[in-house]
Amino acid sequence: MLTPSQRQLLRIISESGPLSRTEMAQMLGLSKAAMSGLARDLIDLGMLHETDTVYGQGRPSVRLDLYPECAFFIGVSLLEEPAPMILSDLNGKIIARGSIPLSRDPAVVAEAIAQALPDLLDSHPDAREKLAGIGIALSGFVDETQANCVQSTLLNWQDVPLARIVQERCGIETFIENDAKAVAVSEKLFGSARDIQNFSVVTLGDGIGCAHFIDGKLYRGNHGGAGEIAHCTIEPGGSPCRCGKRGCLDTVASMKAVREMARAEGFSCDTLVELETEASKGNAAAIRILHRAGSALGLAIANLIQMNDPGLILITHVEGSFDGLFGTVLKQAVEANVLPRYAGQTPVRVKRVDGDIWARGAASIAAHKFLIGPHTN
Amino acid sequence: MLTPSQRQLLRIISESGPLSRTEMAQMLGLSKAAMSGLARDLIDLGMLHETDTVYGQGRPSVRLDLYPECAFFIGVSLLEEPAPMILSDLNGKIIARGSIPLSRDPAVVAEAIAQALPDLLDSHPDAREKLAGIGIALSGFVDETQANCVQSTLLNWQDVPLARIVQERCGIETFIENDAKAVAVSEKLFGSARDIQNFSVVTLGDGIGCAHFIDGKLYRGNHGGAGEIAHCTIEPGGSPCRCGKRGCLDTVASMKAVREMARAEGFSCDTLVELETEASKGNAAAIRILHRAGSALGLAIANLIQMNDPGLILITHVEGSFDGLFGTVLKQAVEANVLPRYAGQTPVRVKRVDGDIWARGAASIAAHKFLIGPHTN
DNA sequence: TTGATTTGTTCATTTCCTGAACTTAGTGTC
DNA sequence: GACACTAAGTTCAGGAAATGAACAAATCAA
Hints:
The structure is a homodimer.
Chain A: H1 4-16, E1 19-20, H2 21-28, H3 32-44, E2 48-54, E3 61-66, E4 72-77, E5 83-89, E6 94-100, H4 106-121, H5 127-130, E7 131-138, E8 141-142, E9 149-152, E10 157-160, H6 162-170, E11 174-178, H7 179-189, E12 199-204, E13 208-214, E14 217-219, H8 250-253, H9 255-264, H10 272-280, H11 284-308, E15 313-317, H12 325-337, E16 348-352, H13 357-372
The structure holds a DNA duplex.
């Protein structure tokens, strides 16, 4: 078992990349003496290794990096059928892929994970021995212990202690998390927000998800509901939403909503790209739909910037490009609706992601727990 | 100087009220042995004292409470002319009041504070000896060290190192903070949000301020701008705001905006109460104004709930009552615009405050620093 | 009165970190 | 190339803050 200091050390390397002992000592507020011992222990444990040497004045410094294969994690995404299941290392590199049939019975899910586990673990000689945890991403609300699903419409769950069930079946420490929050953690650990303490992720797909990192920690909210941007009212008195109210961001800017609006206008297109093509040809209806969606999402993001002043907004999407009307309007709407003094101060980054995003996010939940230790969050 | 553990102990008592040593040991994750020593030291230092005895099975537990007069704090509000300046104890009780002339010259402010200091300190025999810090609240943006005012329109400041200037003149540790954030800290330390880890404060007055506590800590945002709810776009394409954009919450729901709208409609009334009276008589224009303001603020708060899922929204106001149309519409708008599943889950509390609010908030900044220690936030 | 129960203290021990001195491995200069 | 200079990293004695176990203290329950 690792000590808190050892975990801290692993975490800052994970955040900042290779560092010399002296740099780490300064960052953690420890003496060089303490760092010397910590580093030695972690090198002996096979978790750190010396990389390059940096020459300056005085004795050169030797930078230490994580040994990415010092721990392995399983990630399962319960968002699709079949449910993707991956094996990843501490860098978020996907070592192996698999899948399990989706089920609404938690025991069946646990059994399926247990069944699929050996195959995945066989793909790396150390994986079995160094498996450190299982993470599961799902659509819905998760409690603060990250063990129980409080509510999931998609899975029709209410207070399901999924983590415990899987853990008992597989014998591996297991945590669950909301889909968007898992993606945020994966961006913090593996992605482009590694060294950013305050940022928000917006996942744009059939639905719209959002999650916040605050002071370097995932902020889950008082009921685990932080980031439910999809049901912010963005068009007061607008179209009815499946949630029961009207004018939710979800009803205008989700890819599902865009598709439905497109169909209602007689388009047969299934993707954003097709609609963008129509818009670029000058089709007024296509332009209207994209404009409406882009400005709605832009306004929501601007409000998020005003309220939380994050250091980065990261929009992930699976659909085609963001170079068209939708992306342009979105960015314009963000700029137009933040305090002019702040306009352009908050980077809004768009990242195209592949189908692994949710499973990788799930694995990152386990990796995060590995780096920060138990009984923390 | 206090150790981190001692500060932690003071903080949990400040949050939860009197606690027994065993309870505190559990809350802090320490052994009874460690707690025994900590408590003894703090009692010897005159910061803690034993209060009542709680009888149950086994040996009764003796609860420990803060000795509120173990530390004193100065709070200055640079929001009014003259600027109120108070002396408070660790419970937020105001021991003495004074004021200084407001100036845009930081050196003049520092000099005025230094001049007014002796009089305030004379009002309590221990105050001089136990003065632990000066807090200053101002309208504007403050950097993360809480020493520099990055920008203040009201004071016409840009990058003014006010805390250092005052500290050098007075010889007392000094911190500055944005007005709404100071109020949030004061509600966390002294007020009704003591034991709540995640909450947001909305200060309703001539302007609208807002600040968030997240995971028991004030969240300042990446540029110190978290909580700038006043310039969320709430009426797209609405009235122009002095910030340069349109439809900001500030242009519809601030008391200043309400007054201006009332004047534009030919009302001569100066306060919310008068407009409420008109509305209760059935005056359509008054009703329209109040409805518009209440629903705008309600929508903004609902969006805040959706985005951050706080455990409490605390609205502070100086104006008359919230029982009229404005308050009713506000609460309805909140309920109508949060996810129906969550409606009513987030308590929205309204608190009438007096003119001491800003100065007390300022003092709480110093008290907060005292409780959490230097080089932390 | 006796036992059960829980609070709080004492003390030897452990853990983790620090400060100071030292070793190591380079650069820059004459 | 010898020399000082600089900075990284190690070693080691010592110290602060915690722990665990045993114990003392104060009450309730039978």
